[in-house]
Write a structure and sequence with these properties.
By secondary structure, this protein is mostly beta strands. It has one domain: Immunoglobulin-like (Sandwich), CATH 2.60.40. Helices cover about 15% and strands about 35% of the residues. The longest helix is centred in the N-terminal third of the chain and has 16 residues. It is globular and about 70 Å long.
Length: about 130
């Protein structure tokens, strides 16, 4: 094995060892000082809980030294939904949210899960 190939193989192994194992949340969680909430938004003109819907995602991370967060869907290494560089904020999803879909808030630097919350069911206003 040429020296360059050997060095590249060692570098790849070292990088893989530094990557945390993927987290697949099964219950809501948040580190101390972190809050992640999801609010279902009924769509006009017809509200139908059987259909997918928009959720408003709000987050707050008090005393976070370098607030740079990635928001993934379903698991810590799932599809990237959004990136933010602020300790607090809000953003609406598209009309594809469904009950039980987890939003996972990841610290971009450490790849540590800061919070995970499932989409709550949509409750329609009385007709």
């Amino acid at each position: 094995m040429p020296l360059r190939t050997f060095a590249l193989s060692i570098a790849a192994l070292l990088l893989a060892a530094c990557t945390p194992e993927p987290v697949v949340p099964t219950a809501p969680m948040a580190l101390e000082g972190v809050r992640l909430t999801l609010e279902p938004l009924p769509q006009s003109p017809v509200c139908d809980p059987a259909q997918s819907y928009v959720v408003r995602v709000r987050w707050e991370a008090r005393d976070w030294p370098d607030p740079r967060f990635d928001f993934h869907l379903e698991r810590s290494d799932g599809p990237l939904w959004a990136r933010h560089n602020s300790p607090s904020g809000e953003q609406d999803s598209g009309p594809w949210a469904r009950p039980g879909l987890f939003f996972v808030m990841i610290d971009r630097e450490t790849r540590r899960v800061a919070a995970a919350t499932p989409v709550p069911p949509l409750v329609c206003p009385p007709a």
